[in-house]
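OP here, attaching both records as promised.
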Amino acid sequence: MTSSLRPQLERVRRAWRASPLPRFFAWWGGELAFLVPARSRVLFGGGAAWHLLERAGDDWRLRRTGSHDMLAQWPDSLDAASQQVALADGLRGVDREDLRLALCLPASAVLRRLLMLPAAARDTLQQVGAFEMDRQTPFRAEQVRYDIRELDTPAPAGRLAAELVAVPRTTLDPLLARLGQVGIAVDAVDLGVDGGRLGVNLLPAELAPRRSHPRQRLNLALTAACVLLLALVLGQWLHNRESALAQMQTQVETMRAEAQEVGGLRQQLQDNAGAAGFLAARKKSTVSALAVLQDITQRLPITAWLERLTIDNAGQVGFQGQSPQAARLVDALKDSTVISNPNFQGTIQADPSTGKERFYMVAQMRKPTAAKTAPAAPSSNGGKP
């Protein structure tokens, strides 16, 4: 990791630790862990299992963080293989991937100083610690291994509380060298406080062990699988929505076609009803040709007859025939309840073959309301065609 990226990553870590998300995920993970079978919990569970290694005189002591009970103790005079076996016995049952080992120094070997720093120094605490080393301790920065941590202690506005922790290299480096000789690697160097750790790391970055994380790779693979499954679920949901939408659109088109067909049938019914009503009104408002023929036949004298009868759409009646005295036919038809205004059309001509007068008359049909009056009594001569 380059020094240019370290401040940004440290800022992200502080923001993460200050947020409520770590506590929420810790609680949530704990609740979910009880739902997983024990064997699977061992396989997929985990988390850093910190153990503390302390130097007491000529002996090394191992205990679990937060506990004062010793897991193992062995003299430093043993050879490297024996010390590794003693450490392994104390760590029996601990997952090697979760194991974290911290070298804990006694409080007498460490210098601690409380600092009040400007809030702007929050992103460069390590550089500020090196600058403050000469002022706060009798050592220079290159003579010590140090770390600086931000405290939750209330501070004046615009400032923050921090603690500078330093140990002389003449004290720490021989211990690290001895552990390197016997093949024991530590993940941090800290100060023991109340059976636990203070929370700093005095171990130089170049001496930090490199660890493989197979479970992390498994978790990443599972995360990728979950993302893939989520994408597939979302794609299936989207496909189902599109299928349902297409089905609804098909139903709507079918219903629209049926509605148009119903509308066409309704319009056809209205047209037919209108036509039927028109015909009924026309029939009601029009005198039938049979009634006209009957009325004319009853009113003409027996000596007259008709040769032709026509009725046009305008209600005009035209009839042609012969009579001995054609001029008197107007008087015979003027009281008709079916036709009105009878008049001759053209001149009256004599027919040599019959000795009668040939005539052509026109009249106008009356409205049905006028034709409802009682018809004239038939003449004594009766009707004729």
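Record two, same layout:
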Amino acid sequence: MSQSERLVLATRYRLVSEIGHGANGTVWRGHDELLDRAVAIKELRLPEDLSEDDRVVFYRRTLREARAPAQLRTPSIVEVYDVVIEQGRPWIVMELIEAPSLEELIERSGPLPPDRVGHIGRKLLDALGTAHRAGIVHRDLKPSNVLLDGDRVVLTDFGLAFSSGSASLTKTGHFMGSPAYVAPEVAAGEKATPRSDLWSLGATLYAALEGRPPFERDNVMATLSALANEPAPVPANAGTLGPVITGLLEKNPTRRLSHARAADRLERALSGPRSGRRPATPRYRLTVVAALVAATVASCGVGATALIVGMMREGPEPAPAPAQAATSAAAGAGVPAGVASSTLAVRARNDACKIFVSIPGEAMTVLADETLKRDEARKYDQQRLNAVIYDASACDVWVNGRREPGGAPGERKNLTVTRTSGG
């Protein structure tokens, strides 16, 4: 065990294991021994060549990173618990979220489907709305700062955030932010605003749909040149999200979508039909019925009513209710092979069976994050599993060989499964 892993901060926060590290420091899994809960601890390392004035700026920025989300109470923004100065450097104690980032998901699975990107966009818009109403601009929204915890979307890393009531801590001549996701006006040296956060949101959603940000090039200078001189590319995989993405990537901030207009377009895109086909319209023998009705009306009004009811009944039978259709499909498919020996098994009743399966631990391992096709099955034999079933009516689930009860349409189920000795 390293010296850092034996360290206890402020006599209560014990470092347990390293989660990840970068140029500016390390993120640790920790344990709050006073409240007996797991926490994340961000250790910020100061470059050795910093002057005393620069160190003061660094400390102020650290406090700002902690204060910004601490003012914002929403599930879509990471919760900060404490800031500790230990061994001459700051440590930020925050909520532990054991979930992959959007960047990791894109790298692992490639471009995401528009409906999932739309869900992510809606949650991030909510997070930005909360921050902007509090006078806080994030300034570094990008896929690596977005965590996906089941259907929860969490915006993290407010290290570059600033409040409209605080002085800027960015030194003249120092570029802050990620070039592939920074708004054009900020790259040109203008002050960041809520509209520039919305541009970064558009670039983040573009990357989720296309697998790469819109202006990414081989190096920083080429990226900034493309950002300044080239038109925003039209996303190929956006579907109904296209107007949202192009509106957010408008280079002129005065013509860029506002928060309200972006939310409105996004809601329209998500509430629209999932395919371009219109629902089938029942066909009736209108010409024959019209003639019969006309003839009957001439002789007896009551007969006309009877014929109109008969016309309605000549149409095709109504489709069965979704729950009935799903039950019939599941019953016909039988029990998948290998269920009896599996810790967890899932089979799709229909195409809405979305699952998230992971192995818990100090470093969570994601086994599945997908939507299964009708009758498609997945089986897992690991000793301990966490699973999220997003629509309990769309999936059949077996735990240690035993069938789990179903649920209502849209009902979410969270399962923690441990393999039994007989499994």
